[in-house]
Here is the input.
Amino acid sequence: MNKKIFASIILINLLFLTSLSAQMHTASNAGKRVANELLDTIPFFNGVYVGVDAVGVIGNSLGSDTKGSELQVDVNLKNRFFPVIEIGYSSTDSESDGGSHYTSDGSFFRLGMNYKMKFRNRDESHLFVGARYAFSSFKYDIESLSMADPLWGGALNPNLSDDIWGGSVPFSVKNKSCTAHWAELVFGVRAQIWKNFMMGWSLRYKRRFAVSGSKQAPPDNIPGYGSNGTSTFGGTYSLIYKLPFKGKKK
Amino acid sequence: MKFYSSLKQIGWMLFGALLISLTGCSDDGDLSQARTACKVSFYHETSQRLDTLSTLTVKAIGADSIFLQNTSASSVSLPLKYVGDSTQFEFTLRGQTPDTLTIKHKNTPHFINMDAGYAMYYELTAVTATRHSISDILLYNSTINTYEQENIRIYYPN
Here is the structure.
């Protein structure tokens, strides 16, 4: 008798589990179908966004040696892919304690794509990841000229003075043309502030591919890249406006 | 709900501002470039192996600097002149008659970066020495830059 009851319970459980599994499978398929249908309702073109980076302007007013700005234009495709172009200008004017003077100015552009995370969400506010290829063309000066020696008279360049045999060497590179290109990995946020106005920031890991210029006097700073090393981090903080036109809805 | 959503967005924007301000910070410390130098190594004449010499004195000629004074060493790093194309040193081994080492060089000043400053790079064009204690001399590597490498080999007998 007990055996029969036990066998019945197992049979009922098996039937229940099979039915549950079938229901879950059906629900999962239905979920996928709904998601795909939802994706199908998202138009291909969802607007154009124009942004201005404020880091260069704010940074310079807070004491940074570099100033500049950049314009960013991106297009929302399927609420998921955001091809983007960024064009900017940057100049640097820095002086070291020893009297070394570095100036540079030039333009840069970046071309790439952002990918909206949680793209099924139709909100304008979102997180994104992306990648860029970037190029910069600029000119720079480096100067460390001899100064009057207040103690012994004569002229002396403190940056290249020989403390053993005496004497010093002036150093000057003027109007040197240079190009650089690099790649960037981007993580960022865009937040809707009011109607078509948004703010956004992005954090970027930059990896330099190549930089031209003199081996004797390489540039200290690359417009759009930052300090001239093999890799660096940077960021943008943008004010963004969504242009008021839309694509046709499906 | 909309209020909390706005608060969340403001939080994200402030977090971004903090992150971006951190990317501009750096703790470089003292990166100033040390003076480049010509590395001279001492070798045993017959075995042709690196040798540690005892009671060696190395002085600059035309300046007050002493780089080694009655010490044991298998190599010495010698700074070269910034102005001029020839630098001389006096090598005295165990109180014997001093030898004069003459290094001819071409100087090229280099800019490293604004933190590290400048460095003088050299191309060694010739090297000669008197032969009181020194048996032989070899210009091993003619380039002197910020990467220290062996430039000159001096051979001594026992």
Observations:
- Chain B has one domain: 38-156.
- The first helix of chain B runs from residue 2 to 23.
- Residues 57 and 96 of chain B are 10 Å apart (CA to CA).
- Strands of chain B lie at 38-44, 53-60, 66-73, 75-78, 86-93, 99-113, 117-129, 136-139, 143-144, 150-156.
